[in-house]
Amino acid sequence: MSAESKKAHNFIQSLIEDAITKGEHSGKVVTRFPPEPNGYLHVGHAKSICLNFGIAETFGGECNLRFDDTNPEKESQEYIDAIKQDVEWLGYKWVEEVRYASDYFDQIYGFAEELIEKGKAYVCALSADDMAAYRGSLKEPGKNSPYRDRPVEESLQLFRDMRAGKFQNGELVLRAKIDMASPNINLRDPILYRIRYADHHQTGDKWCIYPMYDFTHPISDALEGVTHSLCTLEFEDHRPLYDWVLDNITIPCHPRQIEFARLNLNYTITSKRKLKRLVDEGVVDSWNDPRMPTISGMRRRGFTPESIRTFCDMIGVNKAGGTVDVGMLEHAIREDLNTRSPRAMCVMRPLKITLTNYPAGQTETLTLPVHPQNPDMGERDVTWSQTLYIDREDFEMEPPRKWKRLAPDQAVRLRGGYVMTCREVVRDDCGEITELKCEYDPNTLGVNPEGYKPNGVIHWVSADDSVETDINLYDRLFNHESPDSDKDGDLMDHVNPESLVVLSGARVEKSLAQPRTNLPYQFEREGYFFCDQELTAAAGKPVFNRTVTLRDSWGKGGK
């Protein structure tokens, strides 16, 4: 058992250990991660990935990646490719080849015929509205379909005719014959097969009938030899149907379904349907927009797989529902990046500085650490010259009390460089400040000045060899803790208008002319920023996405 597995001990692990101790389980532990390829994976799926692959690793078993692809109208190869990439990026590898529920369509069809022959399934011609009316409610039992007692031979022939394409969409369905009076509505003769004339991304036009998820899932698990089918809590009421299917067909394996609480994050939505709406309505650019809670979006924003796995370990696995503060996810990425990210200086809103007492055309090279707490990461060179840039927000004409940056006739130290004092403010015809003329103290490199005290430390870049860049300041996509709460209006009402602020013409130090793309930088005093390879290639200059601020700027009350 790995150190990581020990750290991530949870109630599911305890159940399996207890079953092994009692002799109720022997042999290899086999789990599976079974996404539907109808969208990109989000942070909630990351929890399930870590759990399923982690449990298998803990017990020296195996985890399959299987696409539950029973709804071809909403599925695509794009989603399949993205999901595979996400799982691998998180650091996990499935056993053997990727699997698909569609690999088992022939066998699943055979099990459906077996249920018909046993008198446990029938072909029903009720319309969708009538079927809903016959189903009853939580307070009232349902009533039997008038087709429930069709002779076995008739249902079998109709089912074969459904497969042969002799009926239209919605004309007939195959239903299980269980109990229309069951208090569990999932057992009130659920649909097992429906007619869908749609090409499938794996099977083409071979099928015009497709099995329902609740019928496909237990059979796929059993055919793969899965021992523990780990599902989120909404499938708890489906477990009796899962067991009924396996108890009534001739199949040797019966996996144990165990439910756990899904991940709910405040300021976040994790419904693929609602995430798709954000894409379709142009609120975000794509599924991998860095504001999206998708794994690909977080990757493009600069989140690391280690931070996401740490977050999943922090929140744990339990049966109780609840909402997790998204600040925990942001804390996990800050903790990871603080120890590993190289440092650099970026001036977001450049303001020109001219050092009037520094020779024009002269430069000198200053050496700064790549990481102040980790000397093994080496050093980097920055250029000092007569013309520099500082951030416009680091200067105030009339500074407030306790101002620790630059102001007229006040001095500041430039990070890793000299101390300078502002002597003159230059404005354009509109009164806007365009330049500060300053004097630098040549005796202050690495030492404190004599006779006066600098008013803080600010970052800077040289005008001579800094690199122009664009900065995408990403923030939380929603400004409401529960954006998809029906009582608080439509989720679109809660989109944060400042979730993306684009800064053009920013400047970074010369070491970022060819930025690394495997890990974000810490832009000193600003936050963590990741080079967006796609946008950089299009712009012909570095483009950086803000991964996360240095500190939580939201707090308990939000912004």
TrEMBL record:
Gene3D superfamilies: HUPs (3.40.50.620), Ribosomal Protein L25, Chain P (2.40.240.10). PROSITE patterns: AA_TRNA_LIGASE_I. GO terms for biological process: glutaminyl-tRNA aminoacylation; glutamyl-tRNA aminoacylation. GO terms for cellular component: cytosol. The keyword ATP-binding applies. GO terms for molecular function: ATP binding; glutamine-tRNA ligase activity. Keywords: Aminoacyl-tRNA synthetase, ATP-binding, Cytoplasm, Ligase, Nucleotide-binding, Protein biosynthesis. Its main location: cytoplasm. The keyword rRNA-binding does not apply. Residues 28-338 form the Glutamyl/glutaminyl-tRNA synthetase class Ib catalytic domain. PANTHER family: GLUTAMATE--TRNA LIGASE (PTHR43097:SF5), GLUTAMINE-TRNA LIGASE (PTHR43097). This is Glutamine--tRNA ligase. It comes from Marinobacter halophilus. The gene is glnS.
